Amino acid sequence: MTIYTRGGYALPGSSLAFKTGSWRVQKPRHVHGAAPCHAVCPAGEDAQAWLARVDEGDVQNAWRTLVQANPLPAITGRVCPHPCESACNRGEMDAPVAIHAVERYLGDEAIRHAWDFGVPTPKADAPRVAVVGAGPAGLAAAYHLLKLGLRPTLFDKNPSAGGTCLTAIPSYRLPREVLGAEVEHLLSLPIDYRPRTILGRDVSIEELRADFAATILAPGQQQPRPWSVDGVTPKDLHQGLDLLESWNSLQTAPAPFSAAVVGAGNTAIDVARVLKRAGVTEVHVISHKAKPGPGVPEDDVMPALAREIAEALEEGIHIHEHRGVRRLILRGERVVGVEMVHMKKLRRANGRLSRVAFDGTETVLHCDQVIPAVGQVLDTRGFESLLDAHGWFDLDDVMRVAGQRDVFVAGDAGGNAGTVTAAVGQGRVTAGAVAQLVRGHEPTIEAPRLAVPFSALNVHYHESAPRAEERVLPVAERGESNEVDLGLDRLDVEAEARRCLSCGNCMACDNCWTLCPDSAVLKTREIASDGSHYVFDYDYCKGCGLCAAECPCGYIEMIEDL
Amino acid sequence: MSTETHVDIEQLRRRQPRFQGLESGHRACLGCGEALAARLVLESAGPNVMIANATGCLEVFSTAWPESAWRVPWVHSLFENAAAVAAGMEAALKHQGQSAKVLAFAGDGGTFDIGFQAVSGMLERGHNVLFVCFDNEAYMNTGIQRSGSTPHAAVTTTSPAGRERMGKRHLKKDIVSIIAAHHVPYAATATVAYPSDLRKKVRRAIDVDGPSFLHVHSPCPLGWGHDSEKSIAVSRLAVETGLFPIIELERGELTGAMPIRHPKPVTEYLKLQNRFRHLFADDPRAREELEHLQALADYNIEVYGLLGDGPDPLDTSGIDKVYRGGAKWA
Questions:
Q1: pLDDT tens digits for range B152-169
Q2: Which of B23, B46, B227 minimises the CB distance to A519?
Q3: Are A66 and A169 part of one and the same domain?
Q4: Domain-terminating residue out of A320, A342, A375
C-alpha cells in the first residue's frame, strides 16, 4: 500500500485543479555547467565532481571519479601548478579550495589501498595501439586506450617508466616511492609494457605503423636547449637537465663554492635547490622575469611554481630578477663570473614582446659555475621522417601529425604541453582520437566548456572558511631528498571538500525545494533523470525565478517559455 | 541537458517528505513572499492545526471559489476578526477536548490596523492561539494602499511621492513592542529569507500553551516594485541592514536576536524596490530621507544589540549555510 505524506493528497475542490503553469513566460531548467576548475584543468579533471564525492565521505569513489581523466593523481597533486586553484570561484570569496592537496591525498590513498581502476580487460581481438614513451603522456594514453577497449603496447627507452617525472623532477618534490608506486599501480593494468626499447634502434616507426592500428608518440623533450653567450660556452658546462638527471639517478652533482643558474622555470629552480642540497654554498638564479608577488603582472612572473620559488628563497637561494647574462667572464676556459644586465620584456613597435637589455646597468656576479636551464628540445632520433622543415611535429586539432592518418603526438614532444598535467591531458585526448579512428570515425575533440562565473553563484549560503594550509618541512630538516610539502590529513581534506562551492552542479541543498512559493519544485528520493535531486512541476511553476536566484551553485537557469 | 524526466510527478507530489499545508494552484503573484511564508509556517506547524484567516491577499489567492489550496481546516470570516474567530475556535476545541492548535493568519492590515483590537483582546484573554502576521507593508489586495505597517518614506497609491511628500510621512508601527506589552509568553519576528529560523520559531510558538505571535516579513514583488526572483534577496537585505530586526521576546523581555555579521547600508535594500525609487533622485529631501532610514536601521541595531560579539553560527551569514544533501532544512 502506498503511504502518502499527511496532507499530501488532493481532495475534490483542491486548487491543484488550477494549473498556474499557464501564467508562465519563463521557466527554470537544470543546467550542469562546467566548474572553473574543470574548465581550466589541462588533464580534463572535473575537480568539482570528485570533491563532491569526498564531501559525501566516499574517498574511494572520489578517486574513481578523478581517474576517469587522470590516472596519476599522486604525481600531479605534487607537481602540477594547479591552474584549477587560480580559477577557483572560492578565491573571490576567501581563498581557493586546496584542490591539489586533495588530489594528492586521493592518489596516495589509492596507492596505499591498491584500489582497482575498474578498467575492463580488453577483448583479445581488440585493435592494438602503440604508445612510444612511458612518461606522463604515454602512461595516460595507454590507460585511456585501455579504458576505451583497445589494447595498448607501451615502449620506453629507459629501464623504468616515468619519463620526465623520473629524470627531471627532484625527489624532494616527488618522492621516488610515490612515483614508483603510482606508475607500478597503473602498469598493473593489462598494458603490454616494453622497457629498454628504443625507437630507431630496436623498433622502427614503419614497423609500428605496420603492426598497430595507430601510434601515439610521447617521447617528451629530453635534449637541453643549446646555450651559449655570443657563441661562448665554458669548457666545464653542465646543462641543468643533465645535472638533474644525474642527481635523480646517482645522487651526484658538481659542488663548486658558488653557482649561477640561468633560467626562470621549474627546471631552473629545481637545479638551484639540488645544488644547494649537493653542498653548493652560494646558489644564484638569474631570471629575466620577476618573482611572484602582489602587483606583479601575470606575464612578468617567473613560470616556476610560486611555492617552489618561496621554498627556494627559504633555503637561501638568491634570485636575481629582471636580469640577463650579457657576457661570461672567463679565466682560460673556466668561468669566474658572469656579467649581468638589467632586462625586461617590453612590447615593441611591432606589438610583440621582446627582451630589452638596458645599457649602463651591468653588474658582475662572481661564481664558479654557470648552469643553463633554459628549456628543452625534442630528441628527434627515430622519427625524423615525421618532422617538418623546422624539426618539429606539425600537428592538427586532434594532435595528429599533419598528412598522416594514424600517428598522433602527446606531451612535451608536441611542443605545447609544458606540464605533467598537460601531458596527461594530451594522452587522454590522443587516446580518444585513436579510438574514434579505429572505429572508423574522423577524430574530433570535445568543444571546450565555458566555466560557471562567480556571478552565477549565490554565495549568501556559504560561510567564509579558512583554507587548510599544507605543512611544509622546516629548512633544517629538508636534507638531500626529504619531501618538502607534507600534504593534508583526512580531516583537512574533508574540510576542503566542504569548502567547494559546487559551481554548476547540484549539491542537493534543498534551497529550490524549500523556497518555491508555489511548491512547484519536488524532491526525488533517487536522483532525477537530469542529474539533480529535484523535479520542476511545470503544471504549477509560474516562472518567478526564485529557485534560480537562490540556487547556491548556479545550477538553475531561466529560459524563455512563451 | 534535457529537462525531460521519467518521474511520475503526480505520485511524487504525494510523497514529498514534508507536510504540504498550502498546495500548488493558488493564485498568488510570481515570487509572492506571503505564499512562501504561509507554506513554511504550515510545514513546521504540521497537519494538526486549524486556521482562522483574515481578509487579505492570503485569503483571496488561496481560495478562489470553488477551490481551496489549504490542506487543513480553514475559515475566513471578516477583515477585522481573525483573532476573535480564532479565540472562539480555541474555546470550542477546548470544550470538545480536542488538541488541534489554532492559528490566526492575517496580513499587516488585519493586524496593525483593522484587526488590531481583536488581536489585543485575544492576547489579553490568554487564548492558546498562534497569531501569524504576514507583513507585506501595505494593503496589497486592494491595490497598494498605505497601512500602519508601511515603512517611512515608502510610496503607496495613498502615500505618493511628489512636491508635498517623499512617500509615507509617518513611521512604521512598532507592532512587536505593542504585542510584547501584553506580556505574552512568546512573540518573535522572522522572514522568508531565513526559513530555518522561521520554522524553528513556529515550532517554539506551537509549543507555547497560551497566546503567541509571529511577525513575518513577506516581500511583495508587485507592491514593492522589485523583480519576482528578488523576493528573498530583498528580505535578506531587510535583515542585514537592520531595518527588520529578527528578535524573540518572552513575557515582554528580549530573549534572542539574530546578529548581523556584516551590516549593509540601507541603500542596498532600498535601491532594489521601486517604492523607494524617489529617494535616489537628486533632491535634498531625498537625501534627508535616506539618512532618516539609515538612522532608523542604526537605532534598531543599537536597541536590539544586533552587532553581536564576533561571528556567530546563527547570525545572518551563518544560519542558512547550505550543506550537500540539504541537512540545513532538516
A1: 999 999 999 999 999 999
A2: B23
A3: yes
A4: A375
